[in-house]
Amino acid sequence: MSQLDGKIALITGAASGIGLAAAQLFAGEGAQVAMFDRNADLVNETAREIGSSALAISGDVTSEADVANAVAGCVERFGRLDIGFNNAGIAGAAAIHEQELGHFQHVVDVCLTGVFLCLKHQSQQLIAQGQGGSLINTASINATQATKGLSAYCSAKAGVAMLTKVAALELGEHGIRVNAIGPGHTRTPMTSRAREVDGFDEAMIGATPLGRLGEPEDIAQMALYLAGDASPWVSGQLLYVDGGITVNELPPGFNPLESRLRQPRDD
Ligand SMILES: NC(=O)c1ccc[n+]([C@@H]2O[C@H](COP(=O)([O-])OP(=O)(O)OC[C@H]3O[C@@H](n4cnc5c(N)ncnc54)[C@H](O)[C@@H]3O)[C@@H](O)[C@H]2O)c1
């Protein structure tokens, strides 16, 4: 028997990277998956590749109407919701003293407010169904690890970790578990520009006890664990999947202000 047989999942940021790997893994484990992403073309294409167990929904996690529609669309197509993987995010570097307010707000809107909106509408559905569920948020090692130039991103991810705890407190009585994943540096389109910086990969790998960068599937496996029946008494946690890098300091040479990370990746 597969780990998610009969379960219905809604995944945000599902057209690329970690979200796509989770959609593929969940579908392979018997789930039906609503794939929500702002990139309409890519989410349609990737959902088509997964097949009839996937539904593409285009929209923006910063729009409450879009998030509400995504939950409603998932329920309309698959009949219910069991799992929310709130994973959409963007990163962008700017020093605090020269950062535009709009830059800071945009990163926080996508990475933190988007997770709030998803938790709100998913939990309403799960409470109405009355059978519990699992909600999973993507934080980062930057929830607890500061990095120069990433004030908005680090603040948003720290917020995701605390929002996860509050949601776990509030929703436990409904049998709803809420957890966060803290990925380390993972090979996805989001990090492709950082990896073009000379020495970046080597520095990261050198600081990582397991001696390699993460792959999207590494993070998706943790999402699968949290989504399914293997973690029935796990809630309110931030679980790092990072090759052990958080036992170390991030390499001092990693300074996004000196790289081409200055603009949020927002395409
Ligand atoms: N890759 C890493 O090293 C790493 C490390 C720590 C945390 N994370 C987090 O993992 C999550 C996934 O990142 P990834 O590396 O797979 O990146 P990615 O860029 O490959 O995928 C992110 C997806 O989110 C979508 N998205 C962005 N903004 C959106 C919005 N407003 N509404 C709906 N969809 C939106 C994008 O279109 C894209 O498909 C993010 O929350 C990111 O912060 C990534």
Write the layout of secondary structure elements.
Layout: E1 8-12, H1 17-28, E2 32-37, H2 40-50, E3 54-58, H3 64-78, E4 83-86, H4 101-129, E5 133-138, H5 151-171, E6 176-183, H6 192-195, H7 200-207, H8 216-227, E7 238-241
Parallel strand pairs: 1-2, 1-4, 2-3, 4-5, 5-6, 6-7
Helix pairs in contact: 1-8, 3-4, 4-5
The structure holds nicotinamide-adenine-dinucleotide (NAD).
Q: Key terms for this structure?
A:
seven-stranded parallel beta sheet; alpha/beta; 14% strand; binds nicotinamide-adenine-dinucleotide; Rossmann fold; 7 strands; 267 residues; single chain
Characterise this structure:
It contains 8 helices and 7 strands, in the order βαβαβαβαβαβαααβ. The chain has helices at 17-28, 40-50, 64-78, 101-129, 151-171, 192-195, 200-207, 216-227; strands at residues 8-12, 32-37, 54-58, 83-86, 133-138, 176-183, 238-241. It is globular and about 50 Å long. α1 packs across α8, α3 (64-78) packs parallel to α4 and α4 packs parallel to α5. α5 links the parallel β5 and β6. The chain has one domain: Rossmann fold. With 267 residues, it is α/β, with parallel strands linked by helices. Nicotinamide-adenine-dinucleotide binds next to α1 and α4.
